[in-house]
Amino acid sequence: MSDIVIQARDLTKRYGKATAVDHISFTVSRGEIFGLLGPNGAGKTTTILMLLGLSDVSAGTVRVLDHDPVRQPLQVKRRVGYLPDTVGFYDNLTAFENLTYTARLIGMAPSERDSRISASLGRVGLADVANKQVGTYSRGMRQRLGLAEILMKDAAIAILDEPTSGLDPQATAELLDMIRGLKHDGVAVLLSSHLLDRVQSVCDRVALFQSGRIVLMGSVPDLARQVLGGGYHVDVEADGQGLANILAAVPGVRAVEQIGPGRLRLLSEGDVRPQAAAAVVNAGGQLRRLSVEEPSLDAIYSRYFQGQQVSHAA
Amino acid sequence: MQFTLDTSKASRCRMPHEGFSWRGLSMGASQWFKGSTAESEGGESTGGRREGSPWHGLGAVFIKELSDNLSSVRMLVLEILMVLFGAVVVYLAVEQLRQGTAEDQFLFLRLFAPPGDSLLTFVTVISILVPLTAIGLGFDAINGEHNRRTLSRILAQPIYRDALLLGKFLAALATISINLVILWLMIIGFGLIRLGIPPSSEELARSLVFLLLTVAYAGVWLALAMVFSIVFRATATAALIALGLWLFFALLWPALSAPLAEVIAPPDLRYSMLGLQTPDTLIMQTTLSRLSPGTLYSQAITAILNPDVRSLGPLFLDQIQGWVRGAPLPLGQSIILAWPQTVALIAGTILLYVIGYIIFQRQEVRA
After folding, report:
1. Do the beta carbons of residue B304 and residue B341 sit within 8 Å?
2. Which residue of chain A comes nearest to B56, CA vs CA?
3. Where, residue-wise, is CATH 3.30.70.100 in chain A?
4. Rounded distance, CA A84 to CA A32, Å?
5. How does DSSP assign A199-258, residue by residue?
6. Given this structure, which CATH class describes domain A232-294?
7. I need a labelling partner for B95 at 20 to 30 A (CA). Which of A26, A236, B211, B279 fits?
8. Which of chain A's residues have a Cβ under 8 Å away from the Cβ of B34?
9. In this complex, which of B34, B48, B60 lies closest to A101 when CB atoms are compared?
10. Structure confidence at residue B27 as a pLDDT band (50, 70, 90)
11. Is residue A276 within 8 Å of residue A250, measured between CB atoms?
């Protein structure tokens, strides 16, 4: 059995002469969190709608769980959960009633309906307010209710469009935790966002979109190596003679920068804290602080497009 | 790819646009209607038949919408209006009937359509309130889901758009039918108490046919309101345009059809000299006025509720030959008389529904 649950090849969407999605190819496997990242209007939502069979495909092929979303949308949608950008529910109904309606649409057996709805509401922490009208819910609660719908569906793939937009930091953190929980259950998660930093922490792999194309794809450390030539910043605070040279010799370290008295910044390809600590101690230095800053997608993204502009200018 | 208006086929292939362009239809729609320009470039996905039943989820949508409709404040207001107006006009009719002698063979039918040319009859009240109710139930069917941002979430469930649209349509029609049946029962009961005689079986049959005709009439306005709810994003726009169109057909069109007919088929001087209407002009005027669903409906119910009515258009001398004066038509003959109008109302409903269906299928769901 193949672990690949979503496979897109040369997927293209045209609106008249405008091309919204331009020959993109990617795969998503079980238990993987795949991020579609990029500015608004880069084609992320259009891609998602094509995966769900909600939008026609102009060219290329998509397979979702070995089904063609264009021809077999019901089979695809039965096993795929979708949390749209700014998800809406019927305000005059309670959370429980909203999910009951969805369960009926899915065709879930009445005998298991109530227990599955209660269980999923419990998992997203909405059990206490399950019988309140959704009209009284905050944005974060609505997003969680959307996740509950996906849990109730027992989906093999969860597609989340901008799940964190408009949420406060705490609600964001909670939601990202729940997304990790989905991954833990073996669900493939495809999420889109224009906020690079927010989602970088949960994504196993990301695809960076730019005007309908995927310009970069891979895990964040891979991209950092490709684009930033490293990407990890290790800050060392230590006293000792010639530490800069000693640290520069540590494998993986690309550059050493003096950022203050007794403070050095290493630019490295990975987390070199153990090696750096050993090098300082072996050289007789006194290590006071050691910290690492992982490469940020923001940095990768802006560096990548800086490079593009320079090459355009040249 | 062949595209036929057979709904069972059309519903299974959601993309009728290869080889058949509905561009003419789509041009008038607003900019969020982008489907028509999406041309497929080969690829295996084009023209394939969709798998799975288009009716999956229909029952769930129907039940949810019906309970929404029946419990909504909007429907409550319309119900109160209906009962209030109905009670007043039926009371007036009863009082009028009690003044006269009980010679009339169809006393109960006079409750619905009292003799004389009073405007305050049950039939006029119904022909105003039913379109209003239908528009009230349909104007936010699809754009309301869009604006609440529930549309994409619902369509991401394993159902086709067919189920959503048809479920909403049938639920609204069922809501109207339930109201009409209750109103009908109230009138029969009131008539029994105040008139003191039971209705004959023919009267019951005629008034039931009247109910069915009213449901068909409601269907036209409901389908029209739903088309607007699909085309226009703002619910207020959809409601206003539907109401505007209704006012146009109810008030302006009957007055416009005569001058328009004279332009299209100018009256013959030979007839005018004799003070007669030219047959061609008269026929054109009748045809034009029948473009209005209101005219069709009022003609059909006139035939059903007044057994004495023998013709709904111009009548020529040779057609009157053998006419037994004062003899009412049997129900079957009245139905035959109203049949063209009935078919036109049902056909109009189906046509408008299909137009809405096609536009909805080709619409982008994204916000």
Report:
1. no
2. A105
3. 232-294
4. 19
5. HHTT-SEEEEEETTEEEEEE-HHHHIIIIISS-EEEEEEEE-TTHHHHHHTSTTEEEEEE
6. alpha beta
7. B211
8. 15-16
9. B60
10. very low
11. yes
pLDDT in tens, B291-310: 899 999 999 998 999 888 87
Most confident among A274-288, B22-36, B180-194 (mean pLDDT)? B180-194
What is d(CA A48, CA A57) in angstroms, rounded to the nearest whole number? Answer: 11
For residues B338 and B351, what is the distance between their CA atoms, to the nearest angstrom? 20
Q: Please state the ipTM of this predicted complex.
A: 0.83
Position of tokens 């502009």? A309
The mean pLDDT value for A106-120 works out to 94
What is the CATH number assigned to the segment(s) A4-218? 3.40.50.300
Longest C-alpha distance within chain B, in Å?
Answer: 78
Helices (H), chain A: 44-51, 73-79, 95-106, 110-123, 139-153, 169-184, 196-200, 220-223, 243-248, 273-282, 297-313
Q: Give the closest-approach CA distance of B45 to chain A in angstroms.
A: 6
Distance (Å, whole) CA B165 – CA A94:
23
Best probe of the B interface among A9, A51, A74, by most B CBs < 10 A, is: A74
B365 near A CB under 8 A = yes
Give me the pLDDT at residue B206, please. Answer: 93
What mean pLDDT is predicted for residues A74-102?
93
Say whether A91 and B148 touch across the interface (CB within 8 A). Answer: yes
Residue A26, strand partner residues = A8
**Sheet bearing A59-64, strands edge to edge:** A18-29, A4-15, A59-64
